[in-house]
Amino acid sequence: MSADPLKKRKSKVLRNEAGPTEVKRGRSDGEQDLRVYNEEVEFESRNPEQDFRQYKESCESLAKLMDEIHELKTNGAKEGSAEVERRRLQSCIHFLTLKKLNRLAHMRLKKGRDQTHEAKQKVDVLHLQLQNLLYEVMHLQKEISKCLEFKSKHEEIDLVTEEEFYQDAPQEISRPQLTKNDPHQLTLARLDWELEQRKRLAEQYKESQATKEKIQKSIEVKKEHLRSLQPGLNAIMQASVPVQDYLSMPVEQTQKQTEIAQHLPPPLYVLFVQANAYGQACDKHLSLSISGDVDEARALSKPPEDSQDDDSDSDAEEEQEKTKRRRPTAGGQLDDKRREMLKRHPLSLSLDLMCKDGSVLHLFFYYLMNLNIMTVKAKVSASTDVTTAISAGELVKSDTLLSCLYANDHGRETPNPANRYQFDKVGIVSFADYVEELGHAYKWVQNLGGLHFPSDSSEGALMGSSLSASHMENTMKRLRGRILSRLALQKQFASLEHSIIPITSECLHLFPAKILSRLTSWTTIPYEDYLALPFTCHVTDAGLAKETDMYFSAMVERGTARLQAVVALNPRYPEICPIFSLLLNWKGERSGRTDDNLRAMESEVNVFKKELQGPRPGHQLLTNQIARLCVILDVYLETEEQDDGVEGPREFPREKMCLRTVRGPNRLKPFKYNHPLGLFTHR
């Protein structure tokens, strides 16, 4: 078959397959017949299922023709043979059909997307309309609530009861025929009666004021008469001055106290002399007094040191002999020996140290004759009634008030090394068992009494009066600072237990004006519970938490976030900064071990002490730390990224201004507050 007839046949087939998409022009009587085919109109009337079946049939037919062409060529048919060309032509027809079906499928897909987009736009419009309606409903509900909660001024007036009103009010005001059936008229009538009564009381008040002025005038006349007597009384008092100087009453009292002081044991006498000298020279608010049985002190002829060793040996031998003969009384003899070993001198020294705020620290010094050590008991008298907080129970107790006045000085063990051997003889296990009865044997107490016990670190130290004088001034200052800090903490704890963070006016610049996080609880916790908390292990491992410290737990909340802070408060506060350990419960538990920002928050309150110290001596440090904790919790929550999948407003809207919300690979947040600019920056 020639090529030209084949081309003509192909073009004819293509025209038949394409249908009326082509423009067919033919001349008939000089006119043209023009038909235009629109494929977008055709696919509307076509059935997609039929097109799908046609697609499968065309694919199968095309595959079958390809197999036949392959088979013909395999059997030796030539390239341009009629059978191969015929099948190739049929394959082209099926291929054109597939292209047409593909176009129709794309058109259907586009139409579906357009319809989906239109439906989505309608849904968005309806959603916006719904939101507008909900906002209007909420606004109307608020207005309704305001109307329901409205209270008139007359409701604040305590009116008389209706029975008294009808009983006392005249008929022209009460009008019972009208007011008994109309509550509004009844209220108006009661208000009229109240106004009438107040006018009467005002007149009585004016009359009483006139009477009062008359009485005051008579009182002034009598006062003037009494003032005229004052010069005569002053003259009499001035004439009695030589008599007072002649009697020398203050000098006699001082001489009497000095005479009693001669019977004090040497350590108490050294303390008496040095404290009296320091009070006269440097501290007018320090007073001393001696109490006890003076006659019993005079009867003590021998010092305890002379006969202590011999008596202890002979007593030990007698005790062994008596124990062998009378076993049932061995325990009683040991108790007697213990009491004798722990016996105090009959005289004791009382030292009263008055502070600037009027509070007084009472110190009672005792001397244990056989142990050759001094002990002290403390008591505080506040100038004003201080609201005692539950968590402040350990602050002014005598057992903990003076603990660690100097570093590692707990006062529960005897500082005299010789006492250990004396305790073994009488079966005393530890001096701490008798501290409550005898007092604490602090090292600074021994220094004030001039007692010196050799140790590895105290060779060549001063002794006697020189030792006492070298420690007197520093110890008195520390004692005053301790009592002032404990009283300040006691007041602060009372506020903290009521969820109030007291901030003085000098420290207001350390914090922004608006703090949304709030303190919800402040409680004390035992030392064992503190050790059991997993997020405090870094403090305990570093040796910063000791049994002598006081431990508290604070809870700071904002919205769904709860920040637990446990505080280790050293007895030497504010010299030693409280240590905070944090645990955040919000979207899981976070601590300094798992969250770098929690570790940075701990550093803000633990490390930067000078920023939160406030005015000297820094008694506001703890409350400033808690306030700073509330501020940085606000910054932490407000700078946290919000989940884009959650609709609605942010739980913690940004109230604080920050230059940068995060910085560095650790994504640290800006916790440092810049007061002049009023914004937060990174350190």
Keywords for this entry:
683 residues; alpha+beta; five-stranded antiparallel beta sheet; 11% strand; four-stranded antiparallel beta sheet; 4 domains
Secondary structure elements and pairings:
Elements: H1 3-18, E1 27-28, E2 31-32, H2 39-45, H3 48-74, H4 82-149, H5 162-168, H6 171-174, H7 176-179, H8 183-239, H9 241-247, H10 249-261, H11 266-281, E3 286-292, H12 294-299, H13 304-325, H14 330-341, E4 347-354, E5 360-368, E6 373-381, H15 419-426, H16 435-438, H17 443-448, H18 464-496, E7 518-524, H19 527-532, H20 537-541, E8 550-558, E9 561-569, E10 579-585, E11 589-591, H21 596-606, H22 609-612, H23 621-638, E12 672-674, E13 679-681
Helix pairs in contact: 1-4, 3-4, 11-18, 21-23
Structure, described:
The chain is α+β, with helices and mostly antiparallel strands and 683 residues long. The protein has four domains: 90 residues; 89 residues; 230 residues, no CATH class; 183 residues, no CATH class. The strands form four sheets. Strands 7-8-9-10-11 form a five-stranded antiparallel β-sheet, with helices on one face. A four-stranded antiparallel β-sheet has the order 3-4-5-6. The chain is flat.
